[in-house]
Every structure is written in structure tokens, then in C-alpha cells.
Amino acid sequence: MSKEVEFQDQVKTIYRYITLFGCLIGLFLVMLIYLMIDPTLSSFEEDEEEQQELVEIEDLDKIENGIHLATGFVQGEGLQQVINNCTNCHSSQLVIQNRMTKERWEATIVWMQETQNLWDLGDNHETIVKYLATYYAPEDKGRRENLNNIEWYELED
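User: That's the sequence. What structure does it adopt?
Assistant: C-alpha cells below.
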């Protein structure tokens, strides 16, 4: 019977090693997943005030070279009304990429009011349409200009 007891002790020892090894692998996997989620290990930092350091925000109304930096809109009369009414629901880039006539801008605003819950623009309506029709009107895009003053040469066979 002593051989059976000795065998059982060996099995228990092997079982303990396997359990310990499994726990170490599990701990390693948890650490690996944590590093993938938070690679800076910021939750282990001692000083929370450093972690919540405020980022300086540039002046949101800053305009350089005639472009409103925060939105990319062209500077002009009605800019602030467009920012206040258009960028509440969508990106300024959606406006910038569209080029429409005054009539199409009007129709788009009516469509947004009827289907997208855009509020009544009131006195700002004409100012906004005028701004959009002025700065985001269709552009004529044709062929490039003809090349001038080019010294042509003959291709040899």
C-alpha cells in the first residue's frame, strides 16, 4: 500500500505544479490584455492630478488666412451663424465638401427641417443661405489651362 500512497503523493504534486503553472499563465494573460487596453499603465500612476492635467485649448474663434481654424469655414458675414446652427448636428467638413447653388442650399435646409429635426432658423435663415451660397457655391472645373511657352522637341525613331 505504500506504493499506492507514494503514487498518490506524486500525482498530487504534479497536480499542484500544473495548477500553479496554469495560474501563472492566467496571470500573464490578464497582464497582457491589460497592457493592450492601457499600454501606459496609467492606473498605476501615483499622482492623479498629473493624470488629469488640463490640455490648453486654443482660441476656438481664431482665424488665420481667412479660414476659421476650428471648423475650416471661410471667414465672412454669417460665419458665426453657420457655426452655431450647422455644426451642432454634423461636422463642418460635411458643409465644406458640398457645393450648391442658393436654391439647392435652401432646399437642403428645408429637407433637414422636414426630415432631420432641424429647428427653425428664424432671422438667421437668410444670413446662413447667403453665406453658404457665397463661399460654398458650385465651382466650374474644366480642363487645365493650355501649356504656353514650351520648347517642344522632335522624338527620334
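Residues 51-56 have pLDDT under 50 and may be disordered.
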